[in-house]
What we know:
Rossmann-like_a/b/a_fold, Rossmann fold, 6 strands, 9% strand, 4-stranded parallel beta sheet, globular, TtuA-like_LIM_N, 2-thiouridine synthetase TtuA-like N-terminal LIM domain-containing protein
Amino acid sequence: MKCSRCGNDAVIVQDYAGVALCSRHAAADIEAKAKREVRKCGGIASGEKLFIMGGSSAESHALSTLLSVILAGRRDVTFTTDVASATAVVTADTLDDIAEHLLCQVCRGDAAELLAVPEKKTLRPLSVVPRTEVCFYARHHGWTGDCSTQDSSAFCSDIAAFLKTFSADHPSAAYALKRISDQLPDLYLERQNHAV
Ligand SMILES: [Zn+2]
């Protein structure tokens, strides 16, 4: 298959967008989406102290590469290892993580966590990028380790398997779940404020 933008060999296919992309255009697409998501969640202000959540996974490697792109030339942003002193938390959650988490909470009947507003500004740059593309991005930038997902409970593994099967015929499903996940806390707050 050929890249929809330049005609070179494609390395990823985005069924949800109806395009195929070569490695150069896939990386650029991921970075553009991630930057947009960061801006949507309040951006990275001057003087910001970032706490990075994550470990040694492919997702974390992708996140640190992405942050070096997003913060290139910025000297007004620092990193901290103490979450209490951070002004913003950055996570390596992928689109799949967000969608699976939402479905897990729904199937567990746990409304409280779905409606919780984070205490600190939270940026999830990779939450608009499917896990397979995050993995591509990590490998594109030198990751040679495992790309498999972290261990999760049998319950959430079943949810992940269901979502994978469902998404094969409905490729936008994870994005729809992400939109719900983004909107719920604000909708709940709005509803509460009207009730007062
Ligand atoms: Zn291309």
